[in-house]
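Whether sequence alone determines local backbone shape is best considered at the level of individual chains. The sequence in question and its structure tokens are set out directly beneath this paragraph.

***
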Amino acid sequence: MTSPRSILKLSDVTIESCTLYEFGLSNVSFELKAGELWLVRIEREDERLPLADAAEGLVPPTQGSVTFLGEDWRSMSADHAAARRGKIGRLFEDEGWINDLGLDQNIMLSQRHHTRRSEEEIMEEALKFARLFGLPGLPRGRPASVRRPDLRKAACIRAFLGQPALIILERPERGVYVDLIAPLVNAVQSARRRGAAVLWTASDPRIWDNPALCATSRAKMLGSQLHAIKVES
């Protein structure tokens, strides 16, 4: 039987803390393969870490390596790295919207930039996810005019759009747990069945205790160190 392909691998990664991150990473190693879910608990809600940025190749490690789809981010040209990031869906902790664009344009921007899909195809898939997350359609207002629960749902649509190989969810449940968690778990499990890997950071204990997630691996961030936790079979 063929082993699932490696999607993301951090090998002995160290990143120093800075003004952007309260803590860095210290000798962090783990591998995410196709269909797997890594659930990482971050104890404090206000704690900022470079884990997601490192996974996406945005912050180079001072030690160790980060590979995505078998390639070290540091060995890629700028154009190739940008194309590779088109295969990553990310729900940013700080939303990450372009304020001068409508929310519907924000959602579809990456697919327009990184793929040759038609506008109709992108819109059809986006509307499918909008319905999944309880929206009647794509929100069209500027991000500043859209209420927070709908912003979070829009961020979920953007993260799953285009069948990404890696999905990074940075505490997506914050402030919207009741409305969001069931459809989000369904979307995660559907993505895993088609072969996507998911990295989910969480501070809410209800995520950690949710049996529907069926996480492949669990870990806690304690300062800059990642401590793996045994998953009950």
